[in-house]
Amino acid sequence: MASNNREEAKAAAKAYLMSRKDGNNLSLYDHMTRMLTQYVSERPVDPIAVFGAISEQVTNDSFGPPKDSLQAYSGVPNVLQTAQREQNQITEVTKATSDAGVEDVAETMEDPIPNILMSGTYFESGGVGLAPEETYRIFVALKQLSQQKQFLEKVRFWGKVFGLKKNYIVAECDLKQGADEEKDEDEEGEEAAEGETAEEEELADKEDGEDGEVPRNKKKRTPLPVPPEPIGTGCNIKIYYICNEPGEKWTRLPNTHPDHLRVARKIKKYLTGNPKAEIVSYPPFKGTEADYLRAQIARITASTVISPSGFYTPMDEDEDEGEEAPDTVEINAEYEPLPNQDLMDSFANWVHHVKHILPQGRCTWFDPMPNVEEEFADEEEEDDEDEGDRPSLTDLDPMEPESGPGLLTPISEDTSPCLGGSPAWTLRKTLSALPQHAHVVLQSNIWPGAYTAGTGRNFESIYIGYGLKYEREPFSPTLPPAPQKEVASEPGIMEANDPSVEDEEVARKQAEDGEDEEGEDGEEEEDEDD
Q1: What is the model's pTM?
Q2: What is the dihedral of CA 232, 312, 464, 241, to 10 degrees?
Q3: How far apart are CA 376 and CA 320, in angstroms?
Q4: SS3 label, residue 442
Q5: Looking at residue 364, what DSSP letter applies?
Q6: How would DSSP label each residue in 106-152?
Q7: How far apart (Å, rounded) are the C-alpha atoms in residues 284 and 260?
Q8: What pLDDT digit, counting tens, does each position of 222-239 carry?
Q9: How far is it, in rounded angstroms, from Cα 254 to Cα 263?
Q10: CA 272 from centroid of its chain's CA atoms
Q11: In contact, 266 and 170? CB cutoff 8 Å
């Protein structure tokens, strides 16, 4: 009976020691336990003397702010900031979707954004693509982009381009038909900053000629500069936005320019992740890293974005006018999906549905020397006196138009000197043990990192790489031109050596002696006349 009372007393005393008051997260029992633990670990020489100091230290440690394990882990910098940014992004997208209403949500399910979560499974089964967590974060970022830019009709995840310091997440977008292109605030700021430069160029043009036209040499005809293609056509049929991480602000890439495309084919540069970085190369690239990235995106898209044969059909709106082939294609409503085995059997069952880029840097040929005969005839009528100095018509003949593969060209015709005869594509099927659930995956051998995967009517193209073309041999940069030869040595153009002081004295004495002789001769002639 006494033992039971003793046990109950112990239990009651321990319960009292372990009790906590409101707002206090530490009991006396926990406090004493931590003090004893610190005494055992530190083993002070005089335990009684340091009792108050240890009690105060334990109290301060207990009532301090809780430590976050993620924040304390140095291997994951800025984890909390990234998580907070992504949380705010998801909240914003969810709120915008809920505010749209049930009917609008049903419409958006059809969707300006393809289901990259489903297409991600295609690539994942083929051993390529991104982690599901990153794919979801990119999907939310694309959703946010489509909500912020109301003038965009479609937003597609184009791919991820690796950089030395940061990477690029690239979104490919279509403008709404008939909608004016809106401008971002940062783009308006850049245009304002460039306004002074544009005004200076305009003044310079007016000084060169009337109405901003540069006077042209009638004796020598020079080609016109090749202009970029308008938005919605050719290389600029799409617009692109980039960010370094999902959740960061999207930045619009500039439209591609023929000059940038021509130089980009001759150089190789790793990206840094800074769109404003300078491109140092030869031949000189007259633009920033954003311009170079846009040129590489255009090249990769034209070469690697493919689809099953018959899925797309050319738009025939211009056929009655007898104009050139259209730039775009439309989905064939009568398309019947090919079995996976047919897609595996032949490369001819896959076609390019993006136009080829000509060596000129455009998808459609631009004649830099138009109306040669008419202009030559007008010049003859204006002035018949300089016929002998005029160039012949053979010197003014128009340039031969460039041509390339048309839309919906089979990938079986793809060739490149960099492959050395190897096929341009590698084709394989996933899940060989379960063919009914398999997907077809194609990998570009010209642009490593470019893949197309899918089955039936569902397929997608993606690029994950450094933005560089495959080279079979080590890359050799273009050499600068050879230095000009020295002018031939001739007596009339030889540089004379500077005379010394002695030479100058001798020349001065000779000049004085010559003047004295002329004076004496003049006096003798006067005496004879007298």
Answers
A1: 0.70
A2: 20
A3: 33
A4: strand
A5: S
A6: HHHTT-SS--HHHHHHHHHHTT-S--HHHHHHHHHHHHHHHHH-TTE
A7: 10
A8: 788 999 999 989 999 999
A9: 16
A10: 10
A11: no
CB 330 within 8 A of CB 389: no
Q: SS3 for 1?
A: coil
Q: What one-character DSSP code corresponds to residue 419? A: G
Rg (CA), the chain: 39
Q: DSSP class of residue 481?
A: P
What is the spatial distance between Cα 284 and Cα 273, in angstroms, rounded to a whole number?
Answer: 20
Closest CA to 87 of 251, 241, 243, 246: 246
Edge-to-edge order in the sheet of strand 152-161: 251-252, 239-243, 168-175, 152-161, 458-465, 450-455, 440-444, 425-429
CA 107 to centroid of chain Cα atoms: 32
**What is the Cα–Cα distance from 230 to 182, expressed in whole angstroms?**
15
Pairing of strands 450-455, 458-465: antiparallel
Pairing of strands 168-175, 152-161: antiparallel
Token readout for 139 is 């999907």
The Cα 308–Cα 338 span in angstroms is 8
- Name the more confident of 208 and 118: 118
pLDDT, residue 283, reads 93
